[in-house]
Amino acid sequence: MPEGTIGGDVATETVRIRGHQGDEIPAYLARPPGPGPFAGVIVLHHMPGYDEATKEITRTFAANGYTAIMPNLHWRDAPGASPDDAAAATRAAGGVPDERLVGDVDGTARYLRSLGSANGKVGVIGYCSGGRQAFLAACSLPLDAAVDCYGVFVLDPPPDGMPLKMRPLVGLAGDLSCPLLGLFGAEDTHPSPAETARLEQELTRLGKTFEFHTYPGAGHGFFAVDRPSHRPEAAADGWRRIWDWFGRHLAA
Amino acid sequence: MCTYSTERVEVAGSGKGPDGWFPLSLACVYLDHPQHTRAEHTLNIDFLNPGQGPSARVAVELSEEPARALAGAIHAALGAVPEGLS
Q: Quick check: helix, strand or coil at residue B62?
């Protein structure tokens, strides 16, 4: 029997997937009831790690009819450690390398497509650093839809002195493989509304399919129900747009 | 935002974690989302010994002003040491 529980209308378990370079990493899987077919959604956690709040988001996707999975992006830096210790270890090591992230999302997408209940479509969503990584994945892999929630350093480079050699991703925008939904806060400074407006111009110039929404009165992290940045109205509208976006682009 | 920005300091000394005392070799200092504090950002310090694994860690999350006061207090305490004591 797999490790896991079945509660309400969602079944969850921790599975092992093959990520970057064939490494085996754990991933939190949440499935809707029934045989499907279901689209898949990859949820990318933020810097604080493979945490309970992002597991709850993963379950929310399953409760709404998607097979959702959150790979543990910090596992290699701290196998078996608690998520907060693993996040600290990843930070001490310089962060999640972009190449490793792409390999892990690729492996996660392959896992989703291999499920008997799959409809063949896979989307990706990420929050904060995961928003940047969702954009990176969508520009590097064949995916069907992407959602960037206040991702940082997509357009502008990080300030000098950061230990990780992170690069702006806008140069990859021409390779964006799927429709992109961007959800941002008007009070956010990273990314700022000016930065997302420039990204919008670039995606328009490239003829990409996308929608950006910037919420007044909301800053960074407005979806996070466990943090003071939570803005219920922005989050509720954001969820509505996510369901619309994935509903349109991940249908078989 | 997730800042990524991290100041790394090699340290010598000891820290006390859930399994008792252990030698420290590294401190990471960063302003970012906390794990526990109900604030959007905190000044976080991880005292680590990577050689003993990721759980060899003493972590603190401080709001900004007390963090500055702490930094000042460290300087003040070190500055008050009589010559020759350290």
A: strand
The beta-carbon neighbor of A48 closest among B35, B50, B57 is B35
For chain A, 252 residues long, the average pLDDT of each consecutive 10-residue run is 50 97 98 95 94 96 97 96 95 92 98 97 96 96 97 71 66 96 94 93 97 96 91 97 98 90
User: What's the CATH number where A225 sits?
Assistant: 3.40.50.1820
Please give the single-letter amino acid code of residue B59: A
C-beta separation of A179 from A243 below 8 A: no
Q: How many domains does chain A have?
A: 1
B39 Cβ under 8 Å from any chain A Cβ: yes
* Residue A107 at interface with chain B, using a CB cutoff of 8 Å: no
CA A226 to each of CA A55, A217, A229, B32, B39: distance values in angstroms, whole numbers, following the listed order:
13, 18, 9, 15, 10
Write down the ipTM of this complex: 0.80
Give helix then strand counts, H and E, for chain A. 6, 9
Domain tally, chain B: 1
pLDDT score recorded for residue A190: 85
Which residues in B lie closer than 8 A to residue A129 (C-beta atoms)?
Answer: 2, 4
Which of A82, A85, A162 has the CB atom closest to B5's CB atom?
A162
